[in-house]
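=== RUN LOG ===
request id: a7f3
mode: sequence -> structure
chains: 1
length: 502
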Amino acid sequence: MITIGTGELSPAAITAIAAGAAVEVDRDALARCRVTYLAVEAVHRRGAPIYGLTTGVGDLYKAPVGEAAHDDIQLAMLRGHATGVGEPYDDRTVRAIMACLLASLAQARSAVRPELVERLAAMLNRGVVPVAPAQGSVGYLTAPSHIALVAFGAGQARLDGVVLPGDVAMRRAGLATDGPVLREGHALISGTYEITALAALALERAAALVDAADVTAAMCLEATRGNTRGWEPAVQRLRPQPGQVSTAARLMSLLEGSEPVAANRHHRLQDALSLRCVPQVHGAARDMLDFAERTVTIEINSVTDNPAFLLTEDGEVEVLANGNGHGAACAQALDCLAVAMASVANMSHARLDRLTNSVLSGLPPFLSRRGGAESGLMVLPVTAAAMLGEVRQLAGPSSVHSMVTVAGQEDHISQGVNAGQKLLTLLDRAAGVVAIELLCAAQALDFHMPVALGRGTGAAYAALRAAVEPYESQTELSGPIEAAKRLVLHGAMPDTVGGVTR
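=== RESULT ===
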């Protein structure tokens, strides 16, 4: 159970909710939501202008809504903004968006009823997952509109794997669908919830990828008779970048007790950069991960609604018109992280070439036991090159591609949703590259057996061999690639090794 509204939520909390963790909203936070709601309701009754409540939105901010029923206007606003197209987000992503939305609403700055906050939490707990198409957002509005419609009995939702009309799904889950009232439609769509959710999911996968790349690099060093002189603490003290220092320490821990490392310390005076500079490249990626995590953590715990409402000490309401819904902070962090992850994949592919090139590795060509007409693992680097080509294309920034929208009123946009989606795709392809390095590193180590590997590399080798047998000529390689890829991003390998070395 994850409690929302009592303190700082981490990206890990968002990914836990995305994966199915239950939520509850702190009672004091709900009480504060009621106080703000009632105060703003009173201001509205007095006729004060409030963007998105007494006026239209976007370039229609000058247009008063008159005496029309506000609940109808708010629902119409949601329908008008539910413009997503293409394939819908998976359940995990929708739940992450809902978690980020809840974290913002629970801060009692959006003038929504506590009952609505509890309803959103109950949707998470009872498995109501709105159908939200993934294309069509420049940074906000779109997916949250589809989600909000379901909360009010419209749209579509998945329940127990079946797509149903929103009102049917909510009714079967035992949830109310009244409203929206006051500005509740607008409040549920005007923040950076979609970008933040994608960023939290990407952080989790990026961290797993770098951890796995450490392991494959260490295995490659063992297999190619490399040395650890460039990874030792004295070198890191000369240039104490935090990520470099921590990566080097992890690499040395992975190789503790390795017989190949002990036997080959003086085999070469100096290794190639793809081995010697792992702490520098993976370390830079870890530093970028730390930066991105700080940015995303702040975003999760921020109020990005416009307007936001502050209760003064004398009980008055201050309406804070703002631009916090602009997603530049997360968008740029995601773009920077994409570049860092592309560098990790580039270096993995360089090591992969060394493993399969007999001139560089000292091992049989393409790690084939028979040679001749048997091509061994010759084509694995080709597959990796195709995926690396995609990685490099996807590393280009999204956040620089601002455009003018909404009749010039929204004339600078973050493209943060594109940045998040692009990074998640990049991470998938990069995981394929590292997975192929893992397969080849294990196959290369087979030529050294029997030998005692490092305590971390040995655990990784065993985890892979539990899922994938050594290559033989009759083996079709697509299945092993996918199995290794699951280990890289979602499976046992990072956890197994992490338990040994951290």
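=== NOTES ===
The beta strands are 2-4, 23-25, 85-88, 129-130, 133-135, 156-159, 162-165, 308-311, 317-320.
The chain has a mean pLDDT of 91.
=== END ===
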